[in-house]
Write a structure and sequence with these properties.
46% of the residues lie in helices and 6% in strands. It is an alpha/beta fold. β2, α15 and β3 form a beta-alpha-beta unit.
């Protein structure tokens, strides 16, 4: 058994000389072909000797290269069909080059046209066989991925030139951790040996399903545990180890790439999660922001959306009803609308807000005499991200009318009559980050439950509960 293992290792060692040896026949056979072309214009015995020498060295090199290639193929992990064609084209080249050498050296007497055809056949086998070898090593698109669009189209690879629009990584909600961060690292450092044409260790990494399935030894990812994940073990082994990845002298993953993969696996190895859903340690945040220019800070709705400018007549109608209207930023068409506190609100006055429903995002109606039925109109403002309806006679019945404000990030219910019943379900406000419930009828127990169910929600309850706690302790 030890002897067989030793022989296997020697075979693999010799086989890995194939990429080195294969360049020898390429150079000499091409030289023989060029000299033969020149000799047709200026034939001479010296030229014929040079052709014989070049073709002889090329044939010998092709024999050694084919032998080393055969040994290398035993390593496995290559596409069977492509390997079959590449292998036998290489063997065919070695045979045909040897035959051509025998013809040119006079050992086999044939017409010059037969030798010329043989030499052309050598070049054709060399070109097509070499291309297939490149496919085995680098993938089918390696030759065309950087080619001009016109050349790629002629070759039938126009799809490789359909460059995607660069992804704007300015919002953690739209940045997918695997797709935008981890997958590019794997494509750059791993896929070359784990693609449809070359699946080392039985591991295919060109699709999510294949990566989840793992390789010949089983799954390579252990969700939540990078140290027990085979893929992490392999990229952190000493470079001298036979199991280290990537192999064959390819560029290793750098420290930051390894840290990103470790973080992704430890966080659950999700293939769908957005960056905003992940716990991001400080060192990972620094890598993402400094090296990858990926923002880890969640952007507000008004920073990521665009709306048309309000028309002049609608703007004038708002101001005529006593509203104060301003744009939230010079380069932004969203509006901040408020009503001076203390004025009684009429339904007609509230309905005019619908004229600005495509631009209105911040609304302050504090102490405006707002009633439960009025909230049905506010519910029709699709871009509302900040709403202050504090110190109004609004209770649970009115609050339940706010069903469509899925962009809401800030809600001020200070001084209203809402109770624990309104704190049961905030799923209709998926973007809500800050809630004010000072001097309402919401109990401390309901707030604690709310904080447990929605840990990302900052609930501001003011001093009332703190005062109650102090009184209880006394």
């Amino acid at each position: 058994m030890d002897l067989l293992l030793l022989e296997s290792n020697i075979g693999l060692f010799l086989g890995r000389f194939h990429p080195l040896l294969v360049h020898l026949p390429i150079g000499f056979i091409l030289l023989a072909f060029l000299l033969q072309l020149l000799s047709r214009k200026s034939p001479s015995p010296g030229m014929d000797k040079a052709i014989v020498f070049s073709l002889g060295i090329g044939a010998l090199g092709a024999v050694f290269a084919a032998g080393a290639g055969w040994l290398l193929a035993n390593e496995g992990g290559y596409d069977d069909k492509t390997l079959f064609l590449h292998r036998w084209m290489g063997i065919g080249l070695a045979i045909l080059a040897t035959v051509g050498w025998a013809m040119k050296s006079g050992r086999w007497s044939v017409r010059p046209s037969v030798f010329n055809s043989t030499l052309v056949g050598c070049v054709a086998l060399m070109l097509f066989g070499g291309h297939l070898g490149g496919n085995l090593t680098h993938g089918e698109q390696y030759l065309w991925e950087d080619a001009p669009a016109s050349i790629a189209a002629l070759a039938g690879h126009a799809q490789a030139m359909d460059a995607e629009e660069p992804t704007a990584f300015n919002n953690p909600d739209s940045t997918l951790v695997y797709t935008h961060i981890i997958q590019p690292v794997m494509e750059n450092k791993c896929v070359e040996c784990h693609n449809e044409n070359k699946t080392k260790g039985g591991l295919l990494m060109t699709s999510v399903e294949a990566l989840q399935k793992g390789g010949a030894g089983g799954p390579v990812l252990v969700s939540g545990n990078a140290k027990d994940s085979e893929i992490f073990k392999r990229i952190t082994l000493p470079h001298s180890s036979r199991k280290y990845m990537p192999t064959d002298g390819r560029p290793p993953l750098d420290y930051k790439e390894i840290q990103l993969i470790k973080w992704w696996i430890d966080e659950g190895a999700s293939f769908e999660a957005a960056l905003s859903a992940m716990d991001i340690p400080r060192h990972i945040k620094e890598i993402l922001e400094d090296d990858y220019q990926i923002s880890t800070t969640q952007k507000s709705y008004v920073e990521t959306a665009e709306v048309p400018q309000i028309d002049a007549s609608s703007l004038q109608a708002l101001k005529a009803q006593g509203y104060t209207v301003s744009r939230i930023a010079a380069n932004n068409n969203f509006l901040d609308v408020s009503l001076p506190p203390g004025k009684a609100m009429s339904k007609e006055q509230l309905e005019v807000l619908l004229k600005a429903k495509n631009q209105l995002t911040w609304l302050n109606l504090s102490r405006s005499g707002l009633l439960n039925d009025h909230l049905e109109i506010i519910n029709q403002l699709p871009h509302l991200s900040r709403l202050n309806i504090s110190q109004n006679a609004i209770d649970d019945e009115g609050f339940q009318k706010l069903q469509n404000l899925d962009k809401l990030e800030y809600l001020n219910l200070y001084g209203t009559r809402v109770t624990d019943a309104s704190m049961q379900d905030f799923s209709r406000f998926p973007q809500l980050r800050r809630l004010y419930v000072w001097q309402t009828e919401v109990s401390e127990a309901a707030l604690e439950s709310l904080r447990e169910k929605w840990p990302d929600l900052d609930v501001q309850a003011g001093l009332s509960f703190a005062q109650k706690e102090a009184s209880a302790e006394e």
